[in-house]
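Changelog-adjacent note: as of this version, every example in the card shows the full chain rather than a window. The one below runs 718 residues end to end.
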Amino acid sequence: MDKKHTWHLPPRRLFQGVIALLVCWVCPAFGTTRLYSYPPRVTHVDVEKYLLIIVSEAGFYAQDMDTGKRLWSHPWPSEARDSWNLQCGNTHLLITIGNGIQVMDKFTGRNRWTRRNEELGRLYFASFIGNGAWVQARFERGTVVYTGAGKAVPMLFAGKRLEEVSVSGWLPDGKTLLLTQRGTTEDTRNTLTTYFWDTETDNITKGYVLKADGSLLLYYLPDSEKAYLIEINSGGHRGHSAFKEIDVYTGTIRRAGEMPKPWSGFTEDGHVLTLSVELDKASLVSLETGETVATIGGPGHLFIIHTTVLARGKNWMFSRDDTYRYWLWSFEEDASPRMIWEPPPGNYLPGPIEAVKPPYMLCQTGPNKMEAFLIDNLERVKSWRAEGEPRRVFTAVTCADMNRILAWFYEDDAETGESVWKTQVFEAHNPTPLITVPGVSQGLSPDGRFCATQHPRTEGPVYLVNVDSGKTLAVIDHEKMGSATVVFSPDSRFVAVLASEETTFLSLDNERVRRTVKRRAHLIFSPDGNYYVTQWGYGRATVYESSTGEAVHTFEEQEKVAARHSRPPRNILERAENFGRNLLGRVVTVAPATPMLTCGFAADGTQLITLAEGQILRVWDICSGKLLRTIRTRLPEQRDARGQINNHLVLSPNGAYAFAYNSDGFAVATLWETATGRAIIRHNLPAAKVKDIAVLDDGTGVYMSLEDGLYFLAGKKR
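Full-length structure tokens:
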């Protein structure tokens, strides 16, 4: 080979390449096992045509509601692999694909037309206009209306394109579209300006201007020929809405009143849809009388999709039960639902996974509800729920025995009308909270005795509260708090409050402040609470004694790696340059930088593990400061479309094992044993996005929560 075409690798890199080949031979790659998946689900019911639209991982399909026969099926386009990208109309389906849309015939599954508008930037949303096949698409730089044949029609007023405009619907003549444009007045009131667009002549005329202090929505209901102006957060009160029925042509107010609370939308014939906090009941309310017309549902049902269908002179809605069967209800008193679909046999998750904590996983099984299940057999072991208003959001923060859990919600202050965060602590199987305190949730001690909140959010002091007594142990307030971070030691003896520029340490045993240092850091405690480690900056980590605050050792990473983040390309030349760097980054380090370290503990807290950007793992003896071993993951320094390198290292809770992977799928994943530096096993990861990872302490496997289910990657043989 000619010398000018010869690549010369540095000796260290050449040695790493040889080792990588040996690892591939000695430690081959294996597949993964999916334990549980999310079931297919009904997303649309056509009561008139007895048709169901069902979405699954692979795609979506139409099914006859009576016979169960599949009428057609279609795979997801490569740019749209989520049911939220699919909308169903009376006769057509709408799929958002990247910066474009695709429209299909609902009854045959055939593609009608596909359009892209790259020049308008990012697509924000797209929807059908009324019950027809016309589509409105809101892009970053304008709104486009497409006819039923897919022709783009510009909305021009006085020779200029209308900006920030939305289409409210067709007027009774069938040719005029009602448009609304958001704006504000000089005194900061919100406005909606209406326009009338004659689609036959392309003539747009300006109508009336609606004003209010709150956020404005205009609902036009062609079937009832009524128009309602909804003011959200009216009077400055969050969650409070008022309505005005107006003449759609002139804006004249016919009557006004308060919206029922909580409301979810309108039916086609002008009733208001309301849902219970738990989403197990749905009601229709008349705005004329304020009375409830009908209520459907009950325990065990969830009304997931908050829309109704007007067919055969009735309003209809469908629910899902605990076993993922779907039921069709008519809004009539004492109406019995009809089961319209049940999923095929499979190992299905009980709900979206919020956290994996072997041998358990936490799943959100409904509004105001969180449950813990044994991973092996899905046995329900813990259940937390709240009753009634307000709707709580349960976090995945529990105490060590998983008896207590944190939840939060918004509430309007009675005096100021402002919305405030509040935190509650619940015990399993008890719907009554143990305590309610102001502020955003910041943590729960492992023994469940203390909770931490920050109030007001991102700037106020941190409150440390005894859950059982309600007593405030400490209030941590600095000149610059910022969004604080609270870290409890695993043995619940200490807590650290990390503010914007200061870190405060407290002892929970004698309930007093220990010390405050004038800097902020990432911080974790050792398993026994005797040490904590801080990462003050790039490439440095310092271990301290928890009881005295004295520094034990500072550990430094001398090597440099490719920076995780990179500025996106500004032009075609930079794009080409980055492409070349990505190719080169698979072999050598390009533009090396001092890495940001993350840390963990091993060997019962006597050893420190430093992790450098998913590339280098080092094990240190804490007392002597001696480097015990180094593991190089050999993950590629390859960037994604946003210019980021997404290499990761996840430790088992005891630090005995480390799982190295690239979340873009640029390399196989490896499970390492930190005590020996040995690669245990390699795995090819699924393409789905990673949500949570848990490495088992004994190294026998790794649990991965992905967008499409829960996976298990085998490790050491038991």
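Structural remarks: The radius of gyration is 29 Å.
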